[in-house]
UniProtKB/TrEMBL annotation:
Keywords in alphabetical order: Membrane, Transmembrane, Transmembrane helix
InterPro entries, alphabetized: DUF8028
Chain ranges passing through the membrane: 34-52, 58-76
UniProt name for this protein: Uncharacterized protein
Length: 83
């Protein structure tokens, strides 16, 4: 008697929840990265606006940019550029 073993292969099944979870995870990572880099660049623009004098002419815009910087810093806090 020969004792040959059959190889069992698991069928490839696409799990819709896993695929949706993957897309959501990628979207969250993208938003977090964009917020991180925006929070990194905005202070440079604020300093440039202060030096150029446009911040004094449009204080509401300056306040909005500073508020946007805070929001981006909070959202992008968990991003690691090296990962």
């Amino acid at each position: 008697m020969s004792s040959a073993t059959q190889s069992r292969q698991t069928p490839s099944v696409t799990n819709d929840r896993n695929t949706a979870g993957t897309w959501i995870h990628r979207a969250v990572r993208g938003v977090r990265a964009a917020a991180f880099w925006t929070a990194t660049v905005l202070p440079v623009l604020v300093v440039a606006a202060l030096i150029a004098g446009t911040a004094g002419r449009y204080p509401a815009i300056l306040g909005g940019v500073l508020a946007l910087n805070v929001v981006c810093a909070v959202v992008g806090h968990g991003h690691s550029p090296g990962r």
